[in-house]
Amino acid sequence: MARPQSAVSNPVRVRFVEFELDEANASLLRDGKPLALAPTPFALLCALARQPGTLLTKDALLDEVWGHQFVSESVLKTAVSDLRMALGDDPRQPRLIETVPRRGYRFIANPSAFAPRSPPPAQAQGPAQDASFFIGRADALARLERAWQAAADGQRRLVWVAGEPGIGKTTLIDRFASGLGDIACARGQCVEHYGTGEPYLPVLEALADLCRRDSALPALLRAVAPTWLLQLPWLSSAEEREALRRELAGVGPERMLREMGELLDRYAERRPLLLVIEDLHWSDRSTIHLLDYLARRRGGARIMWLASFRLAEVVAGDHPLNRVRHELRLQRLCEEIVLDPFSETEIADYVAGQAQGFAADEGFVHALHERTDGVPLFVASVLVDVIARAAQGGGALPGDALAKLPVPENLAGIIDHFLARLDVEERAMLATAAVCGSEFRAETVAQALERDAGWVAEACERLARGHMWVTAPRRGGEDVAPEPPYAFRHAFFREILYERTPATARAQVHRKVGAALEAERARGRALPAAELAMHFDRGRDPAAALRYYAQAAEAALMQLSPVECMELTGRALLLLDQATDVAERDSLDITLSTLRGVAAFQAHGVGSEAKDALRRAYLLLDRVPQHPARGQLLHGLGFLLSIRGEYAEALEVTQRAVALSATTQDPVLLLTACTVEGEVHMMQGRPRRARAAIERALPALDAADTVPDLGFVAAPQVMLLAQLAVQLLHLGMPRQARALLRQAHARAQQLRQPMAQMVVLWFDALLEVRLGNGESVARLADELQALVEEFGLGQGRAAAGFFRGWAQARRGEALDGYRVIREAYERNTASGMRAGGSEVLGYAAEALLLAGEADAAEGQLREALRFVETHGERVYLAQLLLTQAAIARARGQAAAAEASVRSALQEARAQEAPWHELVALVALCEHGEAKPAERKALAALLEALPEAAETPPAARARALLA
């Protein structure tokens, strides 16, 4: 909406503090550099600055900035908050904008008029070296600038900068970013690891960098991206982190993707964001997955993700990035800039910028191009040496200097040549640094070398000043702890130094670096366990490597990265045979296999991969009965087996847990046993035994001060209450069942745990199915589907389909309901989740019968009864037999129908399930098949089940008896 004419005709142009505001040119500078500010906060600033020292009421500001149409005061408050954040103005101690409580705002800075800045003179240039850095890259820079402009206009952009080592990717990115002024820029660096490394490592680095420079970001993280906040522990207290872990238990990796998408979009509403991630050829899979997700995210956003990678390594190494870049290019969701080597003309320009006298010799330029293939790194390295030699020789001819220099055909040879010019101590220091990684700290190198840290730091500074080997860390104005790292100027320098170290010596250095990092970690330095695992692995210390692989795998699981957890445990399990201490090896095997099983369940479902890993750990438990992961292992394996429909094996695991709990007095083990035992007895049609097991678990839950995240299901109390509710219904106590479900819902809401909410909705729907409440089942199915989609809870997706199809069939969409049920059933069984299969097949048969398809319904029913026979799953058998009777009646087979109903009655009594008995007796009476004794039994049952009085079966029974 246009602002009032008075504001437009009187544009403000003032200087205040370190800012210069020019409304006519839509310009705001801080210390002479552009400051990004959204249009609304900019208009608000102009309105305030136009009347300094004057109280502007809220209504006056709403009139001037928004026209006061359809806008509330909360919008003004938000705009003032955004403006203060951009200007760095503290509302508690304002220096620019003062709040007058309940009235409005006042501009309190002392403004002064100023003349517009004159453009810099044409001859004003930076140092020759700065200009030379950008020889031959004008087109690439222009493409980046166009992409940034589009991003700033709200069109999200993903741009790759690709090329070989030394081609100038980082130089291009640095030049581009430095020309954008004071923008929101977050940078992350991928580092080479063994295997997958730390999930989301470069993104977390960039996020941490942005948090340090923008104090508002942590609050935004808390609001929209709690899974990411959990990965940045220094931003919250221990209590807050523990609460977050409980809240996020069971959340899938998809949640992290959606949260990051929302976080970046929200952040970019205030100011455009440039996210830079370098060396994606070393990236973990999670980062690639996130990049793919953000590129495909719909809707505009003022975000540009700029990434670099080595093209050859991505293509030749079958890197997951290669597939992603091809797909995104085909869909025009990214732009790729491939940097080529310098041409001979560009090398001439480069030489002219470094040493004007050499550029006049065409032979020298040609020879330099031939020897270096135009790779900027090669060119710079050779030219530096030639200039130095010329200076030492008193003006030797450039051609002669180049001819005498033994330049090999590839960079490795050039690096070797320059390595030879270092003294022994510098070379040893750099070789040790190369083992540390592309970045290294002087303290770490000093400990590995057993040298004084001051000497190492001095050597690093000397090398950094030479602009050849390393770059000095970017230090802020305040002391930084720990000391920021140095970095190799080019990754290939580090690689050649690493490869030139003999294997035996390299392994020894890895061990020393690992020990140094271990000591730093003990002193509080945040170091990923995966990094230590890599050093001890390459250092041929399998025992230490295994310990850290276990820690890294556990961290990956907590970071909702099960695929990374599986890769880390896979590598670690290959090392187990090298561990010499048998007891320690068995303990680590249990830990690693348990983590692998949990990760496989989260990543791929309950297939053989998860079962085999957990079974491996289970078979070792006799050797290490006191293992700290025993509760997680036994719960995980028992629950997995029950989900797979392998009930006998699941009960075996619960008996093991009970025996261990008796000897260890561990309430968590008893809780584990009772939870799984209750599930199995429920599925096998033993409601009284299921109830007894669950009620035995509740005191165990109270006795356990803290119940660890068992990795599979919801909070134990929620799970137990929901399970018990269904058993009480089967035992004829629907009122108590509903009360327990209300408790479970309240507890799940209190915990704010999506998995717990999913479990309660699931069991609530089971209850309503048995009560025949179609509308309630439909509502619960919709809630379950919404929860599954919001939090990526793959385990509940099929269940939402079961219940939605059941409800559809009862509101006149029987065939559509059948298709939904059957599709969900197939998806579930394909993943290995067979528990409840007989009940779901019963839903399918009922839907077909409602559609008038008796023959097809019989086929589904036969499949359900075979499932009962195969798995011993009797929880829904009585209802299946009643469905069989309904099919027989549809065909006019009265005798067969009566026999099926009597079989259902017999099954209900065998299960000692009064609810099923009530339903079966009502069916007998409705068709005039009940004997006097059975009518008498129905009357006695009604009197014995007062809680069932208000249910539909009880109402029908009273009518029949009357």
UniProtKB/TrEMBL annotation:
GO BP: any one term: phosphorelay signal transduction system
Record keywords: ATP-binding, DNA-binding, Nucleotide-binding
GO terms of molecular function: adenylate cyclase activity; ATP binding; DNA binding
Keyword Secreted: no
InterPro entries: AAA_16 (IPR041664), OmpR/PhoB-type_DNA-bd (IPR001867), P-loop_NTPase (IPR027417), Sig_transdc_resp-reg_C-effctor (IPR016032), TPR-like_helical_dom_sf (IPR011990), TPR_rpt (IPR019734), WH-like_DNA-bd_sf (IPR036388)
Pfam assignment, any one: Trans_reg_C
Source domain of life: Bacteria
Key word DNA-binding present: yes
GO terms under cellular component: cytoplasm
PROSITE patterns in alphabetical order: OMPR_PHOB (PS51755)
Residues annotated to bind DNA: 9-109
Domain spans labelled OmpR/PhoB-type: 9-109
Record-linked PANTHER family: GUANYLATE CYCLASE DOMAIN-CONTAINING PROTEIN, TESTICULAR SOLUBLE ADENYLYL CYCLASE
Protein name, entry field: AAA family ATPase
